Amino acid sequence: MKILDFFFRFAIGGIFLSFGINKFFVFIPSPPMLPQAARFIGSLMETGYLWQILGVTEIIGGILILSGRWTALGLLILAPIVANIVSYLLFLQSGIGFPPFAMSFFLIVSGSFLAFARKEFYSSLFLGLERKTEAKK
Q1: CA dist 31 to 40, 44, 76, 99, Å?
Q2: pLDDT at 106 over 70
Q3: pTM for the full model?
């Protein structure tokens, strides 16, 4: 299990770190996109700030996941981004073929595995909320 945890941490952490840096210094070429996907990415870039915020968040989340100590926090920060990436790949890039499904599957499986391995962190978050609501009653 430790080897699988190590593999998923470095794979997903490396992906987010490299793609986050790529938002500032383009060194990974853009893959072919369908027109609606290109318009969506173009609109994110045209805002002037959202693309950079996304890049910074990916960098921070990737570093936290790679650290090992803060992996659960990194997964928590990146969860909305993963949800948007999976939605983008499945709904806007689904006509490209197999790669969007493979990347979506990998993000979901690796994130779920890492989160489940750190379930005590997440359960303490939700138990803390539950205790606060019971104290108010």
Answers
A1: 14, 17, 27, 11
A2: yes
A3: 0.87
